Amino acid sequence: MASTARTVDINEDVTKALRKFRFQRRSQGHAAIIIKINKAALKMVVDEEYDDISIADLVEELPQNSPRYVVLSYELKHRDGRTSFPLVFINWAPSSSETTMMTLHASALLDFQRVAEANKTIEVRDAEEGLTKEIVDEKLLT
């Protein structure tokens, strides 16, 4: 029998945190909100929030063996001198992650992308080299 229920719930706390994060005014630096899946409860929860964090430090903070959804407010310097702060969705899914968690993560991916309303998406499978400032710049400036 087919089930129409969502595998992983995006609870109201996560939705509110994302909305608040999305509408914060920033004048410099990168900020990030990290969402993880609580496997036992089958729901998303806010894992961490960072203000003015470098991409290298963000990579250090992310787990090497567990998937996460990351929404990044990225300080982008355009070639014409303008600065903007686009929202970037990072699908952090290291290939060394547990299969069960990867399945849950993948099953909720499209729902989370819809709720996050980010401008661009970056897929990261290789935690060591998959996310750098250069990769984000390239993705956003092309």
From TrEMBL:
Keywords: Cytoplasm, Nucleus. It comes from the Eukaryota. InterPro entries: ADF-H, ADF-H/Gelsolin-like_dom_sf, GMF. GO terms for cellular component: actin cortical patch; nucleus. It is found in: Cytoplasm; Nucleus. GO terms for biological process: actin filament debranching; negative regulation of Arp2/3 complex-mediated actin nucleation. The keyword Cytoplasm applies. Belongs to the actin-binding proteins ADF family. GMF subfamily. This is ADF-H domain-containing protein. GO terms for molecular function: actin binding; Arp2/3 complex binding. Residues 5-140 form the ADF-H domain. Its main location: cytoplasm.
